[in-house]
Amino acid sequence: MSEHITTANKIHFLPLEPKQEDILIEDIAHALSLMTRANGHFPEFYSVGQHCIGCSKEALARGYSNEVALMCLLHDASEAYISDITRPVKKEMKEYIVIERRLQNAIYERFLDRLPSKEEQEQISGIDDAMLYHEFYHYMGEKILPEGLQLHTEPDFYERPFQEVEQEFLSQYRKLAENLQ
Known about the structure:
two-stranded antiparallel sheet, globular
């Protein structure tokens, strides 16, 4: 059995031993635009790509740095290579968490040349939780986290063609990466 996955750009990617040069923003944008949030249980298609774009826009609306906005755009990028596992199950899978963290760190290193600081990670997590709260409230009518997780933006909670999400993800990436230099 093969030790690699084949990405949209035909890269033979080793998820357990990620190489910087094999991590392509185009592969990430493509895969995340096709992956569903909530393990596919929302009543309509809402992608991980849309979620990440929304998190990035929220970071900018909160006045966070372009680096944090880029980190927010990429915070679920490991899912492009290893998918995701629901929170109740993931917390029991210690080895998966190690693999996911190693891969996510490689992605941050690839696109930002560093890992998020503790403060930046708290900003990313705060935005991610706020988006999760509002996504579940919008789609399921359920308040899954404590109330008070406010957003400064109006996320696009509607079904969008994956190609449109993929292109917006790439555009957001280019805009943020350009402003880092």
